[in-house]
Records
---
Amino acid sequence: MGQELDAARIIALTAGVLLLLLGWLLYNAVLNVVGGVLGGGLGVGLGVVLAGAFDATGGGAVALVLGSGVVGVVAGVLAFHTLGAISFFVLGAAVGGLVAIQLAPVLHGRFFPGADPDIVLFGGATLAAIAAGLVGFFARKVVVAVGSSAIGSMLIMTGLDWPLGGLPILLLFPAGVAIQLWPRRHEAKDDPDGES
């Protein structure tokens, strides 16, 4: 039992450190790898089908398959990054809409007492969903950094058996967020418009 527990703690510490320090980079790497592999596989498969359909042989068939594979890799990476960004918008919109639905009776009673409650519900939920979706879309790096730092901090503390009553997590978590967001703040100094 002791060796298994030691191995589990080492795994927790390793995963925790990686998530704490590299969460955003790991997120992007996974999008790149998965998008590239799936897109490249689809591209190569399509290239084989096209080579057969056009009776391509020799170097022409190889060029068609390789070209389709390269296009597939690029398209896959772009598609996965686009879908990742859209998923943050959808998640933010869902949270914003749900919060607005819960607050609609309060808004209606306090700020819009004479209005139709269905209009207050629909309008409030729609506006809140769009606003929260845009926040999710534009703050996705922060969301990933905060989430991965929180999980990484907890894994590190679990691997260390929560020393000092868990107080070190109060330093680990903000340090992880700061480390992951540091390049963004550094880039902003070089970019006066803040478009980094």
Note: Residues 58-110 form the longest helix (53 residues).
---
Amino acid sequence: MKTKTKAKAKSNTIRKIFKSKHYQVYYLALAMTGLLVLEGALFGLTTKADWQEALTIFDFTENLKQTQVQLSTVFAPMIGVVEGVNDFYKQATDAAMPLFDLSGSDNDLAQVVSGVTEFYSQSSIQMASLLDLSATIGQGSVAGISIEMEY
């Protein structure tokens, strides 16, 4: 019996805590009036020099330019790799076209298969050397991209 009364007392106190309080409208009007008076004082007491100083504090133009330079420096190796892969595929396509061209010749299927096999063998070696970033492992780097900055 005692446990039920304790649980009931506890639930009643929780209800009292979370019970919504209905304030009169003039409390809101008083708070809004105070806020507007404070805002008016802020705008009325500040001078033009204060606003100019605030603008110089919040001016991020130079930092934005520096961030753009740093981002281009960081992503330059990755862009170079992507361009290299794209160039590789363009050259591979040009090199593969004569292998797949069977018009006007007596090429048999065995010659085509051996040509395709040789093409993929050479291209895999070239792609592995293109994507090899082990030379940059010795210096400070993140995912193979050097993070050193030159000024």
Note: The mean pLDDT is 77.
